[in-house]
Amino acid sequence: MAKTHKKVFDGIFAQLEETDGDVVLFDAKGSPSVIFSMTNPVPRLCTDPERYMLFQDVLANIVQTLGEGYALQKQDIFCRQSYHHEIPDGAEYLTRSYFAYFDGRGYTEIKTYLIITQEAPKGQFVQYDPKRWLDFHSKVSKVDDILSEKGIRHRRLSKPEVAEYIHRFMAFHFWHGAFSMTNFKASDEYLRTGNRIIRSYPLVDIDEINLPSVVRPYAETSVNGYPIATDVLSFLAEVPHADCVVFNQVVQIPGQRKLLRKLQGKAKRHGSMPDPSNKIAKADIEEVLNILAVDSSLLVNTNFNIIVSCAPDKVTPVTSYLETKLYECGIMPSRTAYNQLELFIDSFPGNAYGFNPDYDLFLTLSDAALCLFFKEHLKGCEDTPLTTYYTDRRGLPVCIDITGKEGKVKMTDNANFFCIGPSGSGKSFHMNSVVRQLLEQDTDVVMVDTGDSYEGICGYFGGTYISYSKEKPISMNPFKVTREEYDLNFGEKKNFLKSLIFLIFKGSEAPSKIEDMLVNQTIVEYYEAYFHPFDSFTPDERDGLRQKLLVAAKMENDYDRYAEKMDDIEEQISSPEPPAQIENKALVLPSEERRLKLIRQCR
């Protein structure tokens, strides 16, 4: 009878289905999981420790919200990619040359996934429990709300995306484009797939647990003698010779009462034996119990695992690099991780409860465990209609909104900025690049150039270059306003003209409120009359004016003259005769003489 080989990858997951609006992944034991794609909120090299603390609070809030019987799994994937930018048809030669220069340049991409898993009831069969199912969806929605409230970009993966994510993890292929599976060969040292080596580095050996006595959500590094804040494991984005690194972080939240009783019993046993090491162990347990009684921390089972893919001849330098960097953090990675295949399988997304509690998990406080979660993201392109490309610290183009007010995120309503630097530092070269990108997006650019630094770009784009000389000085009429300017932006133009008038009129002295009001009203009425000249009264305006004159006549209390000359008033209002022919006609109301003259002149 032929010997059958056990297919270890067949027993990881039970089902992937979309139900109640969520895509739920079930592991082999029946534990449901929902996967979020998210962006870590802390920019890499931001140097602001407060941002790390804020994200630490968000993670602590999520753990408290989930509570007992849930696991929080976070995977940060660092994958080497080749840069490529789609160049639109009809792009300028300089734009095509700019992106062609960076095409194919290698860089590290960071992708982050957050997985919420509910522990399945222990037993041979898993039965449907409507209360547990409702509680699971309620907890997932609460986590979604927490991330949205804190402004952390995230979204739930669709069913095809979850399936692709799982298959890419199995192939350990996170590069852009198509991928394929290949055979696995497992050993005590690593896994071999094709011409690559996959090796897991657990951060903690549970037999020793070499962790720093004090841990924070961030670490400090020195740059030019000044300390700045970075992620505790920020070096994962710079692992040499590695084409892909996955940092798998798992926090399981077990029943708290049972663990507390277990710790209290363990403290009594240590106290019953007079030995220095037992006294230290008892003191540590009592300190943990005091923290649990005072703070809102929880006891959690955790696993931190770094999975690296590299060439077979680069395993030794990669291992040396990771051990050196972890040692600088006060962490001694496990040297007895001989269960490489088991560690790889247990690190699959949604398989947070697959770890062996005897040798893969260690017990700690939730706050301490969350400090080791990766919290950074790399700079990406901003969502803005006015794009200006700069290179980031990786040497790759990213588009930003230099105005600060045109993008989706409004940072200011004032677009002023300046470029400063010593002579020969490249100020003009930089501004030529910025102006070129603005002109290619049909932006109007007006520049005052005193050194002829921008004459070339003006000629390249067919602009108008006006040279100044004493023989031909530049002149302008500031009071010339086009119809388009009047309709779209007269408010700013009016303020400019008012400032110009007061500068000529009063110099540096501030105008009074009356002066400001009179000049403002004069400018408004001047351009109103210019763009809306008077042709004639409309019938409605004539009726309104007639009524005003009648009321004014009655208020003169001279009813005899009013009765005699009312026809004359009507004639003067409605007469089609030119003003010269009615100039000598008598007016009944002396108080209305100026008004009627104005009417005749306007007509």
UniProtKB/TrEMBL annotation:
It holds the Pfam family P-loop_TraG. It comes from the Bacteria. Residues 391-530 form the TraG P-loop domain. InterPro entries: F-pilin_assembly_TraC, P-loop_NTPase, P-loop_TraG. This is TraG family conjugative transposon ATPase. It comes from Muribaculum intestinale.
